[in-house]
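Listing S7. Sequence submitted for prediction.
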Amino acid sequence: MTNKLLRIGLVLAGMLLIASCGNRKAPTGGKKDTIPPAILAIQPDEFGDIYDGKIVITFSKPIQRNTILTGLYIQPPILRKKFKWDGSQLTIGIYEELERQTNYYLSLTPEIKGEHDNNLDANYTYVFRSGRLQENVISGSIAYEDAEDMGKKITCKLMTADSTLIYTSTLVGTAYRFENLNFQDHIIEAFIDKNQNQRYNPESEPYFRGITEAREFSTLPMELTYIDTLAPTCTEVKTISNRELQLTFSEALASLDSIGLSTRDSVPDSVIVQCFVLHENQVRLITSTPLDTLNYIVHVHGSKDLKENLRIYNKLPVKGIALPDTVGPKLISIQPREGATISTLLPEIVAEFDEIIPRDSLQVILAETETGKAVAVNILDSPWDAVKLQPAKPLKNYTSYRLTLWVKDSMGNRIKDAVTTLFIPLSR
Protein backbone atom coordinates (compact mmCIF):
# COMPACT_ATOMS: atom_id res chain seq x y z
CA MET A 1 0.00 0.00 0.00
CA THR A 2 2.79 2.35 0.90
CA ASN A 3 4.63 1.61 -2.38
CA LYS A 4 1.42 2.24 -4.34
CA LEU A 5 0.90 5.64 -2.68
CA LEU A 6 4.52 6.52 -3.36
CA ARG A 7 4.12 5.76 -7.06
CA ILE A 8 0.94 7.87 -7.28
CA GLY A 9 2.74 10.78 -5.59
CA LEU A 10 5.61 10.60 -8.04
CA VAL A 11 3.22 10.62 -11.01
CA LEU A 12 1.34 13.69 -9.67
CA ALA A 13 4.61 15.52 -9.03
CA GLY A 14 5.74 14.82 -12.59
CA MET A 15 2.45 16.13 -14.01
CA LEU A 16 2.74 19.34 -11.98
CA LEU A 17 6.32 19.79 -13.19
CA ILE A 18 5.24 19.39 -16.83
CA ALA A 19 2.35 21.85 -16.38
CA SER A 20 4.58 24.47 -14.81
CA CYS A 21 7.10 24.11 -17.64
CA GLY A 22 4.32 24.67 -20.21
CA ASN A 23 3.25 27.95 -18.54
CA ARG A 24 6.72 29.48 -18.17
CA LYS A 25 7.01 33.06 -19.72
CA ALA A 26 10.04 35.00 -20.87
CA PRO A 27 10.95 38.03 -18.75
CA THR A 28 9.53 41.35 -20.15
CA GLY A 29 12.58 43.45 -19.30
CA GLY A 30 10.49 46.23 -17.71
CA LYS A 31 8.94 49.39 -19.19
CA LYS A 32 10.52 50.77 -22.39
CA ASP A 33 12.63 53.94 -21.94
CA THR A 34 11.03 56.75 -24.02
CA ILE A 35 12.68 59.76 -22.36
CA PRO A 36 15.22 61.41 -24.71
CA PRO A 37 18.67 62.31 -23.42
CA ALA A 38 19.43 65.96 -22.66
CA ILE A 39 22.53 68.00 -21.81
CA LEU A 40 22.75 68.76 -18.10
CA ALA A 41 25.99 70.75 -17.94
CA ILE A 42 28.96 71.93 -19.98
CA GLN A 43 32.39 73.15 -18.98
CA PRO A 44 33.74 75.71 -19.40
CA ASP A 45 30.64 77.93 -19.25
CA GLU A 46 29.43 79.37 -22.55
CA PHE A 47 31.68 82.20 -23.84
CA GLY A 48 34.50 80.74 -21.71
CA ASP A 49 38.05 80.46 -23.02
CA ILE A 50 39.04 76.91 -24.04
CA TYR A 51 42.74 77.67 -23.53
CA ASP A 52 43.16 74.62 -21.26
CA GLY A 53 42.35 72.33 -24.20
CA LYS A 54 39.19 70.54 -23.15
CA ILE A 55 35.39 70.72 -23.16
CA VAL A 56 33.34 68.55 -20.78
CA ILE A 57 29.71 67.68 -21.61
CA THR A 58 27.42 65.93 -19.10
CA PHE A 59 24.40 64.10 -20.55
CA SER A 60 21.33 63.05 -18.58
CA LYS A 61 21.83 59.39 -19.49
CA PRO A 62 24.31 57.10 -21.29
CA ILE A 63 24.89 57.83 -24.99
CA GLN A 64 25.57 55.59 -27.99
CA ARG A 65 29.16 56.68 -28.42
CA ASN A 66 29.37 56.19 -32.18
CA THR A 67 26.53 58.72 -32.73
CA ILE A 68 28.80 61.49 -31.44
CA LEU A 69 30.79 61.17 -34.66
CA THR A 70 27.82 62.33 -36.79
CA GLY A 71 25.92 64.50 -34.29
CA LEU A 72 28.67 66.76 -32.92
CA TYR A 73 30.21 69.65 -34.87
CA ILE A 74 32.90 72.19 -34.01
CA GLN A 75 33.47 75.25 -36.19
CA PRO A 76 36.16 76.29 -37.01
CA PRO A 77 37.12 72.61 -37.29
CA ILE A 78 39.38 71.13 -34.61
CA LEU A 79 41.07 68.18 -36.30
CA ARG A 80 43.30 66.90 -33.51
CA LYS A 81 40.85 66.00 -30.76
CA LYS A 82 39.96 62.91 -28.70
CA PHE A 83 36.75 61.77 -27.04
CA LYS A 84 36.93 60.27 -23.55
CA TRP A 85 33.88 58.83 -21.79
CA ASP A 86 33.16 58.44 -18.10
CA GLY A 87 29.62 57.10 -17.82
CA SER A 88 27.34 59.84 -19.20
CA GLN A 89 30.11 62.43 -19.28
CA LEU A 90 32.09 63.20 -22.45
CA THR A 91 35.43 65.02 -22.37
CA ILE A 92 36.69 66.46 -25.67
CA GLY A 93 40.46 66.79 -25.51
CA ILE A 94 41.98 69.40 -27.87
CA TYR A 95 45.51 68.65 -29.08
CA GLU A 96 46.21 71.48 -31.53
CA GLU A 97 46.91 75.21 -31.35
CA LEU A 98 43.66 77.15 -31.71
CA GLU A 99 43.16 80.26 -33.83
CA ARG A 100 43.56 83.37 -31.69
CA GLN A 101 40.83 85.99 -31.22
CA THR A 102 38.32 83.49 -32.63
CA ASN A 103 34.98 82.14 -31.49
CA TYR A 104 34.46 78.36 -31.65
CA TYR A 105 30.93 76.99 -32.07
CA LEU A 106 30.05 73.59 -30.60
CA SER A 107 26.82 72.08 -31.98
CA LEU A 108 25.11 68.90 -30.78
CA THR A 109 22.17 67.65 -32.85
CA PRO A 110 19.41 65.06 -32.39
CA GLU A 111 21.51 62.63 -34.44
CA ILE A 112 23.09 61.86 -31.07
CA LYS A 113 21.18 58.95 -29.47
CA GLY A 114 20.86 57.51 -25.99
CA GLU A 115 21.53 53.83 -25.29
CA HIS A 116 17.83 53.03 -25.89
CA ASP A 117 17.83 54.70 -29.34
CA ASN A 118 16.17 57.95 -28.19
CA ASN A 119 17.44 61.04 -30.04
CA LEU A 120 18.86 64.04 -28.17
CA ASP A 121 15.93 66.22 -27.12
CA ALA A 122 17.00 69.37 -29.05
CA ASN A 123 19.69 71.13 -31.05
CA TYR A 124 22.32 72.61 -28.71
CA THR A 125 24.83 75.30 -29.71
CA TYR A 126 27.53 76.70 -27.42
CA VAL A 127 29.95 79.52 -28.15
CA PHE A 128 33.47 79.37 -26.76
CA ARG A 129 36.43 81.66 -27.37
CA SER A 130 40.11 81.45 -28.03
CA GLY A 131 41.35 84.79 -26.82
CA ARG A 132 39.02 87.80 -27.03
CA LEU A 133 35.32 87.09 -27.65
CA GLN A 134 34.16 88.19 -31.11
CA GLU A 135 30.88 90.12 -30.97
CA ASN A 136 29.93 90.75 -34.61
CA VAL A 137 26.20 90.73 -35.44
CA ILE A 138 23.91 89.84 -38.36
CA SER A 139 20.27 90.89 -38.09
CA GLY A 140 17.28 91.62 -40.31
CA SER A 141 13.57 91.43 -40.89
CA ILE A 142 11.71 88.27 -41.90
CA ALA A 143 9.06 88.50 -44.65
CA TYR A 144 6.74 85.74 -45.84
CA GLU A 145 5.42 85.29 -49.37
CA ASP A 146 2.45 83.40 -47.89
CA ALA A 147 0.96 85.20 -44.86
CA GLU A 148 -0.21 81.84 -43.48
CA ASP A 149 3.44 80.89 -42.84
CA MET A 150 3.72 83.62 -40.20
CA GLY A 151 4.37 82.08 -36.80
CA LYS A 152 5.68 78.76 -38.12
CA LYS A 153 9.14 77.57 -37.08
CA ILE A 154 11.96 78.43 -39.47
CA THR A 155 14.97 76.14 -39.74
CA CYS A 156 17.98 78.38 -40.28
CA LYS A 157 21.57 77.43 -41.10
CA LEU A 158 24.45 79.83 -40.51
CA MET A 159 27.48 78.96 -42.66
CA THR A 160 30.88 80.27 -43.63
CA ALA A 161 31.48 81.65 -47.13
CA ASP A 162 32.56 78.18 -48.34
CA SER A 163 29.22 76.68 -47.11
CA THR A 164 30.71 75.03 -44.00
CA LEU A 165 28.00 74.75 -41.35
CA ILE A 166 28.57 76.87 -38.24
CA TYR A 167 25.31 75.99 -36.50
CA THR A 168 21.58 75.47 -37.01
CA SER A 169 18.93 77.46 -35.16
CA THR A 170 15.15 77.84 -35.09
CA LEU A 171 13.54 81.22 -35.79
CA VAL A 172 9.98 82.49 -35.34
CA GLY A 173 8.41 85.87 -36.06
CA THR A 174 9.30 88.89 -38.18
CA ALA A 175 12.92 89.54 -37.18
CA TYR A 176 16.12 87.65 -36.37
CA ARG A 177 19.52 88.36 -34.88
CA PHE A 178 22.76 86.32 -34.79
CA GLU A 179 25.31 87.51 -32.24
CA ASN A 180 28.89 86.68 -31.21
CA LEU A 181 30.04 85.96 -34.76
CA ASN A 182 33.56 85.91 -36.14
CA PHE A 183 34.61 88.70 -38.49
CA GLN A 184 34.07 86.91 -41.81
CA ASP A 185 31.63 86.54 -44.69
CA HIS A 186 28.55 84.44 -43.86
CA ILE A 187 25.84 82.56 -45.73
CA ILE A 188 22.34 82.20 -44.29
CA GLU A 189 19.95 79.51 -45.53
CA ALA A 190 16.44 79.18 -44.12
CA PHE A 191 13.26 77.22 -44.84
CA ILE A 192 10.03 76.15 -43.14
CA ASP A 193 10.12 72.39 -42.65
CA LYS A 194 6.43 71.71 -43.29
CA ASN A 195 6.75 67.93 -43.61
CA GLN A 196 9.11 67.65 -40.60
CA ASN A 197 11.75 65.60 -42.43
CA GLN A 198 14.69 67.91 -41.59
CA ARG A 199 15.22 68.67 -45.30
CA TYR A 200 14.11 71.44 -47.65
CA ASN A 201 11.41 70.39 -50.13
CA PRO A 202 11.47 72.83 -53.07
CA GLU A 203 8.01 71.77 -54.28
CA SER A 204 6.12 72.82 -51.15
CA GLU A 205 8.31 74.80 -48.74
CA PRO A 206 9.46 78.45 -48.73
CA TYR A 207 13.20 79.11 -48.82
CA PHE A 208 15.76 81.89 -48.41
CA ARG A 209 19.49 82.16 -49.08
CA GLY A 210 21.60 85.26 -48.55
CA ILE A 211 25.24 86.33 -48.19
CA THR A 212 26.72 88.99 -45.91
CA GLU A 213 30.16 90.55 -46.02
CA ALA A 214 32.46 90.67 -42.99
CA ARG A 215 31.27 93.59 -40.88
CA GLU A 216 30.81 94.46 -37.25
CA PHE A 217 27.07 94.92 -37.86
CA SER A 218 25.44 93.42 -40.98
CA THR A 219 21.81 93.72 -42.06
CA LEU A 220 20.27 91.06 -44.29
CA PRO A 221 16.47 91.05 -44.84
CA MET A 222 15.15 87.48 -45.04
CA GLU A 223 12.28 86.77 -47.45
CA LEU A 224 10.87 83.23 -47.44
CA THR A 225 9.50 82.55 -50.91
CA TYR A 226 8.29 79.54 -52.86
CA ILE A 227 9.87 78.38 -56.08
CA ASP A 228 7.68 79.44 -58.98
CA THR A 229 8.30 77.78 -62.34
CA LEU A 230 4.95 78.69 -63.94
CA ALA A 231 4.95 81.44 -66.54
CA PRO A 232 2.22 84.08 -66.25
CA THR A 233 -0.90 83.68 -68.37
CA CYS A 234 -3.47 86.19 -69.58
CA THR A 235 -6.67 84.78 -68.07
CA GLU A 236 -9.28 87.42 -68.96
CA VAL A 237 -9.87 90.30 -71.36
CA LYS A 238 -12.57 92.83 -70.56
CA THR A 239 -13.89 95.53 -72.90
CA ILE A 240 -14.07 98.90 -71.13
CA SER A 241 -15.09 101.01 -74.12
CA ASN A 242 -14.76 100.98 -77.88
CA ARG A 243 -11.06 101.92 -77.56
CA GLU A 244 -10.03 100.51 -74.19
CA LEU A 245 -9.45 96.94 -72.98
CA GLN A 246 -8.39 95.54 -69.61
CA LEU A 247 -6.30 92.37 -69.43
CA THR A 248 -5.97 90.27 -66.27
CA PHE A 249 -3.04 87.89 -65.72
CA SER A 250 -2.61 84.89 -63.44
CA GLU A 251 -0.03 86.80 -61.34
CA ALA A 252 1.75 90.14 -61.07
CA LEU A 253 4.00 91.02 -64.02
CA ALA A 254 7.45 92.53 -63.98
CA SER A 255 7.37 93.43 -67.67
CA LEU A 256 5.48 92.96 -70.91
CA ASP A 257 7.02 93.27 -74.37
CA SER A 258 4.01 94.07 -76.56
CA ILE A 259 0.29 93.57 -77.15
CA GLY A 260 -1.41 93.15 -80.51
CA LEU A 261 -5.06 93.03 -81.56
CA SER A 262 -6.64 91.51 -84.66
CA THR A 263 -10.06 90.49 -85.92
CA ARG A 264 -11.04 86.82 -85.94
CA ASP A 265 -11.95 86.83 -89.64
CA SER A 266 -10.51 84.34 -92.08
CA VAL A 267 -8.37 87.23 -93.28
CA PRO A 268 -7.62 89.06 -90.00
CA ASP A 269 -7.17 92.81 -89.84
CA SER A 270 -4.77 94.29 -87.33
CA VAL A 271 -5.76 96.99 -84.88
CA ILE A 272 -2.97 99.24 -83.65
CA VAL A 273 -2.49 99.42 -79.88
CA GLN A 274 -1.58 103.01 -79.12
CA CYS A 275 -0.30 102.38 -75.58
CA PHE A 276 -0.75 100.19 -72.52
CA VAL A 277 -0.26 100.54 -68.77
CA LEU A 278 0.87 97.71 -66.48
CA HIS A 279 -0.23 97.57 -62.82
CA GLU A 280 0.62 94.35 -60.95
CA ASN A 281 -1.52 91.64 -62.66
CA GLN A 282 -3.61 93.99 -64.83
CA VAL A 283 -2.94 95.81 -68.10
CA ARG A 284 -5.10 98.54 -69.65
CA LEU A 285 -4.62 99.39 -73.31
CA ILE A 286 -5.88 102.01 -75.74
CA THR A 287 -6.37 101.33 -79.45
CA SER A 288 -5.64 103.96 -82.08
CA THR A 289 -9.03 103.46 -83.74
CA PRO A 290 -12.42 102.52 -82.26
CA LEU A 291 -13.38 98.85 -82.13
CA ASP A 292 -16.57 97.50 -83.64
CA THR A 293 -18.96 94.85 -82.39
CA LEU A 294 -16.74 92.13 -83.85
CA ASN A 295 -14.81 89.22 -82.40
CA TYR A 296 -11.13 89.98 -81.81
CA ILE A 297 -7.99 88.17 -80.70
CA VAL A 298 -5.62 89.80 -78.19
CA HIS A 299 -1.98 88.74 -78.78
CA VAL A 300 0.30 89.05 -75.71
CA HIS A 301 4.07 88.82 -76.26
CA GLY A 302 6.80 88.45 -73.65
CA SER A 303 4.94 88.49 -70.33
CA LYS A 304 7.43 88.02 -67.46
CA ASP A 305 6.55 87.59 -63.79
CA LEU A 306 8.42 88.82 -60.72
CA LYS A 307 10.47 85.58 -60.58
CA GLU A 308 11.69 85.89 -64.17
CA ASN A 309 9.34 83.23 -65.59
CA LEU A 310 8.63 84.17 -69.20
CA ARG A 311 5.67 83.30 -71.42
CA ILE A 312 6.68 84.09 -74.98
CA TYR A 313 3.18 84.19 -76.45
CA ASN A 314 -0.38 84.06 -75.18
CA LYS A 315 -3.70 84.88 -76.89
CA LEU A 316 -7.30 85.34 -75.78
CA PRO A 317 -10.57 86.15 -77.60
CA VAL A 318 -12.63 89.26 -76.85
CA LYS A 319 -15.76 90.83 -78.33
CA GLY A 320 -15.67 94.52 -79.17
CA ILE A 321 -18.34 97.05 -78.28
CA ALA A 322 -19.39 100.30 -79.92
CA LEU A 323 -19.96 102.14 -76.63
CA PRO A 324 -17.55 105.09 -76.31
CA ASP A 325 -15.99 106.32 -73.07
CA THR A 326 -17.70 109.55 -71.95
CA VAL A 327 -16.24 109.87 -68.45
CA GLY A 328 -13.31 112.20 -67.83
CA PRO A 329 -10.17 111.15 -65.95
CA LYS A 330 -9.87 111.47 -62.17
CA LEU A 331 -6.81 112.50 -60.18
CA ILE A 332 -5.48 109.79 -57.80
CA SER A 333 -2.52 111.65 -56.28
CA ILE A 334 -0.07 114.49 -56.83
CA GLN A 335 3.39 115.20 -55.45
CA PRO A 336 4.38 117.65 -54.04
CA ARG A 337 1.14 117.92 -52.10
CA GLU A 338 -0.67 121.22 -51.62
CA GLY A 339 1.32 123.49 -49.30
CA ALA A 340 4.39 121.24 -49.17
CA THR A 341 7.98 122.44 -48.76
CA ILE A 342 10.61 120.75 -50.95
CA SER A 343 14.39 120.51 -50.57
CA THR A 344 15.36 120.86 -54.25
CA LEU A 345 15.17 123.65 -56.82
CA LEU A 346 14.51 121.16 -59.64
CA PRO A 347 11.60 119.11 -58.29
CA GLU A 348 9.84 116.31 -60.13
CA ILE A 349 6.09 116.88 -60.07
CA VAL A 350 4.08 113.67 -60.51
CA ALA A 351 0.31 113.43 -60.99
CA GLU A 352 -1.35 110.00 -61.18
CA PHE A 353 -4.72 109.41 -62.85
CA ASP A 354 -7.22 106.56 -63.07
CA GLU A 355 -6.77 106.12 -66.82
CA ILE A 356 -4.37 106.66 -69.68
CA ILE A 357 -3.43 110.29 -70.43
CA PRO A 358 -2.01 111.05 -73.91
CA ARG A 359 0.95 113.39 -73.77
CA ASP A 360 -0.44 115.67 -76.49
CA SER A 361 -3.49 116.41 -74.31
CA LEU A 362 -1.58 118.19 -71.54
CA GLN A 363 -1.85 121.88 -70.66
CA VAL A 364 0.56 123.02 -67.95
CA ILE A 365 1.20 126.32 -66.20
CA LEU A 366 3.86 126.67 -63.50
CA ALA A 367 4.14 130.18 -62.12
CA GLU A 368 5.37 132.20 -59.14
CA THR A 369 2.38 132.86 -56.92
CA GLU A 370 3.38 136.44 -56.02
CA THR A 371 4.34 137.74 -59.45
CA GLY A 372 2.47 135.35 -61.76
CA LYS A 373 5.67 134.90 -63.75
CA ALA A 374 5.50 131.61 -65.70
CA VAL A 375 8.26 129.00 -65.64
CA ALA A 376 8.98 126.68 -68.58
CA VAL A 377 8.27 123.00 -67.85
CA ASN A 378 9.64 119.78 -69.35
CA ILE A 379 7.50 116.64 -69.65
CA LEU A 380 9.49 113.59 -68.44
CA ASP A 381 9.06 109.93 -69.31
CA SER A 382 6.49 108.28 -67.07
CA PRO A 383 3.76 105.60 -67.15
CA TRP A 384 0.84 106.46 -69.40
CA ASP A 385 -1.51 106.91 -66.43
CA ALA A 386 0.86 109.39 -64.76
CA VAL A 387 2.23 112.77 -65.74
CA LYS A 388 5.76 113.66 -64.63
CA LEU A 389 6.95 117.26 -65.00
CA GLN A 390 10.08 119.23 -64.09
CA PRO A 391 10.99 122.93 -64.32
CA ALA A 392 13.27 123.66 -67.27
CA LYS A 393 15.59 125.64 -64.95
CA PRO A 394 16.11 125.82 -61.18
CA LEU A 395 13.37 127.56 -59.22
CA LYS A 396 13.98 130.46 -56.85
CA ASN A 397 14.63 129.52 -53.26
CA TYR A 398 12.06 130.57 -50.63
CA THR A 399 9.55 131.43 -53.38
CA SER A 400 6.13 129.81 -53.63
CA TYR A 401 4.95 128.28 -56.92
CA ARG A 402 1.62 126.99 -58.16
CA LEU A 403 1.20 124.29 -60.79
CA THR A 404 -2.01 124.12 -62.80
CA LEU A 405 -2.61 121.11 -65.00
CA TRP A 406 -5.44 120.32 -67.44
CA VAL A 407 -5.67 116.86 -68.96
CA LYS A 408 -7.87 114.85 -71.32
CA ASP A 409 -8.08 111.10 -71.73
CA SER A 410 -7.56 109.28 -75.01
CA MET A 411 -11.27 109.71 -75.87
CA GLY A 412 -11.04 113.49 -75.48
CA ASN A 413 -12.89 113.61 -72.15
CA ARG A 414 -11.60 116.47 -69.99
CA ILE A 415 -10.90 116.26 -66.30
CA LYS A 416 -13.71 117.95 -64.37
CA ASP A 417 -11.50 120.43 -62.51
CA ALA A 418 -7.97 121.55 -63.17
CA VAL A 419 -5.29 119.87 -61.05
CA THR A 420 -3.44 122.36 -58.86
CA THR A 421 -0.78 122.25 -56.18
CA LEU A 422 1.22 124.93 -54.37
CA PHE A 423 4.70 124.30 -53.00
CA ILE A 424 7.77 126.21 -51.75
CA PRO A 425 11.44 125.27 -52.41
CA LEU A 426 13.54 125.51 -49.23
CA SER A 427 17.00 124.36 -50.30
CA ARG A 428 20.09 124.92 -48.14
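Caption to Listing S7: primary sequence and predicted C-alpha coordinates for the chain studied. Residues 316 and 363 are 37 Å apart (CA to CA). Residues 2-22 form the longest helix (21 residues).
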